[in-house]
Every structure is written in C-alpha cells, then in structure tokens.
Structure prediction request, 70 residues.
Amino acid sequence: MERPTRFEHNRYVGDKRTQVVYDLDTVPEEIMAELLEARTYLSFGPDTLVEARNRGYKPHASVAPAADDA
Prediction:
C-alpha cells in the first residue's frame, strides 16, 4: 500500500478513538481507509513506537517492532 500524502514522511500513525498505533508499512488498507475517513489520526514526533507508547498508544497486531525501538 502506498502511504497517504499526509503521512509520506511518517511511519507510525495512531487512532485517537482506540489509542492504537499502526505501522503504515504493514497496516491493512481497509483500516487505513476507515481511519482517514473518520479523521481521527495522529502522527508522532519523533516518529517511533517508543513515542507512541509514551503517549499511551498500544501497537496494532500488524506492527512489527523496529530495531531502533527495542
């Protein structure tokens, strides 16, 4: 799946409703489409799983941990 234009420089995006973070490289297309339609997304700075966890987000099952986030 190609990354949405809004997130072309991000890897992780969170859903504010469920506090779940998705990896844009592995997220199923139907989930990303629904998230963009609902407009309840959030990007993280720095763009890491560690930062997402610091903000209370839990990784989706499709998220593969990156070596730098271990």
